[in-house]
User: What shape does this take?
Amino acid sequence: MSSAAEEYIQDKAAKKAQPPSVLVLAQPKKFPEMGLSSTDYENLGTSGAYQLIRVPFKK
Assistant: This one.
């Protein structure tokens, strides 16, 4: 990892900034088990049996 990238990550961790969302890679059939309905996430892509989704943190 480059020193600039490492410094950026360490800076973000030190500030304890909470991102507005989290990325999840999972099988869609598991979404209900995670408490997710289709209105809770944004589908970013699909490959085979998996989907990459963005789930916003609830306020």
Summary: The longest strand covers residues 50-56. Residues 1 and 7 are 10 Å apart (CA to CA). The two ends are 33 Å apart (CA to CA). The chain has one helix and three strands.
